[in-house]
Design goal:
The chain is mainly alpha-helical and 285 residues long. The protein has eleven helices and no strands.
């Protein structure tokens, strides 16, 4: 029988609390279409609730480690995502996404400057920032056209959380699970009828936070780059599938969305499977 003293706090911190906070804000705010900031705020609040429930004992107001910066990055990232997606021209939006992503990556890498050295730290920050910006762009583009991004982002974040808990960092894994739960609240809010679309700003914010978590896990907890690559492939599955289908509309939109979900889930499942195998090989399970 599982140890409930371990399982129950984990479920509360990573699933129930962020889901409830995000959903409560969406319901209480009576969110309407055309109010992307409210959706972003709900996801951010749910994620922050998970953060403080998980790391309240370790968090320092004056940041000492990379994860101490996360609350500031959540608030600034949410505001930046809304501002960026309000920029009128596509080229300016892409540049703004890159600037925000590079700034977030630099904050993540900064504590590792001494161990990595200036050159490696700069390369890590630039590579991380550009990858986040690229994922942000494709998910924001998808959010403006399809209802699938919150589901697919929740699948990737939830799968990443499980893989992280198995093979790398329980705390970062819980935070990734908290992000997935906040995204799931956006799905629940639109059941049984779609009340408000998931805006590009919310998709961009979710990608930014997921990228920050994965960068932290790789730099400070030994999360494999192979796992990161698989999760990046999962993020790219939906836009690549849409590109392969071409501009023509499919006969069955639901079938097309289901295919995108399956294609997203495959690399996520592979990541979890590899993490389970690594844990078994290490004798932990």
């Amino acid at each position: 029988m599982p140890d409930l003293s371990f399982v129950l706090p984990l479920v509360l911190q990573s699933a129930l609390l962020p889901f409830a906070v995000a959903l409560a804000l969406l319901v209480a705010g009576r969110v309407r279409p055309g109010a992307p900031a409210a959706v972003v705020a709900a996801v951010a609040a749910g994620f922050l609730a998970s953060y403080f429930a998980t790391l309240h004992a370790q968090w320092s107001l004056l940041p000492r480690v990379a994860l101490d910066w996360l609350p500031l990055m959540v608030v600034a990232g949410a505001a930046a995502a809304v501002a960026v997606e309000n920029v009128r021209t596509a080229a300016a939006r892409r540049l703004a996404r890159a600037a925000v992503s590079l700034a977030a990556a630099a904050l993540v890498v900064w504590p590792a400057l001494g161990s990595l050295g200036a050159t490696k730290a700069a390369l890590a920050a630039v590579a991380t920032g550009l990858l986040i910006a690229a994922a942000w762009s494709v998910k924001a583009h998808a959010a403006a056209r399809r209802p699938t991004p919150p589901l697919l982002l929740a699948v990737v974040a939830g799968g990443a959380g499980l893989a992280l808990m198995l093979d790398s960092s329980q705390s970062i894994g819980q935070l990734s699970g908290g992000l997935a739960s906040a995204l799931a609240a956006c799905l629940a809010f639109n059941v049984p009828r779609r009340r408000v679309p998931f805006p590009p700003a919310a998709a961009g914010f979710a990608v930014l936070m997921l990228g920050v978590l994965l960068a932290n896990a790789h730099l400070y907890a030994g999360f494999s780059l192979g796992y990161v690559a698989l999760l990046a492939a999962a993020l790219a599955a939906d836009p690549l599938w849409s590109l392969l289908r071409g501009a023509r509309a499919p006969d069955n939109q639901v079938a097309a969305w289901a295919t995108a979900a399956v294609l997203t889930a495959i690399p996520v499942a592979a990541t979890i499977g590899l993490a389970v195998k690594a844990a078994q090989d290490a004798g932990g399970y």
